[in-house]
Design goal:
Number of strands: 13
CATH topology: Jelly Rolls
Radius of gyration: 16 Å
Distance between the termini: 33 Å
Shape: globular
Structural class: mainly beta
Strand content: 35-45%
Strand order of the largest sheet: 1-2-10-7-12-5
CATH architecture: Sandwich
Number of domains: 1
CATH superfamily: Jelly Rolls
Helix content: under 10%
Length: 184
Amino acid sequence: MAEFKRFHIEGVVEITPKRFGDDRGFFSETFKQSEMIENGIDLDFVQDNQSFSSAQHVLRGLHFQKPPFAQDKLVRVTRGRVLDVAVDIRTESKTFGQWVAVELSAEKWNQLLVPKGFAHGFLTLEPDTEFLYKVTAPYSPEHDCGIRFDDPDIGIDWPVPSSDLVLSGKDQIAPFLKDISTGF
């Protein structure tokens, strides 16, 4: 059975599936709906996505989709390592603007559940990192939003100076949380 670890921000869960190895390699059930339901997580995933970052210190995020295309995400790394971050953007939440960061890696074999109402981002800690995630709603360009990775009101403690980050043009000019309506 997988291990489920909860955080001070309700809804974010680190999940570490069991891995069974021998001299040939290993086997793992990376997603098992019955275990998720047993642990209070009943989601209907509709799409799997994968990204590859060739460089170290690629920062992707902070991204989210507004309702009605809001997405729950189950994210994991199959090669390399990332610092994965979930930011609570639910305006009525007692933890609004707070964040959780977890190192995800192929070695640790852990995953992070990022619920609807959270902005999500990750920083690659190694070159040639592959990142996979399941989502509960398809991509919708009209509902796609972002928040600045370096928003001072959020204060994420990225382990790399901003000058060393590799960012998309879109992520470089994303608005601050206080300047947008998240829809949550």
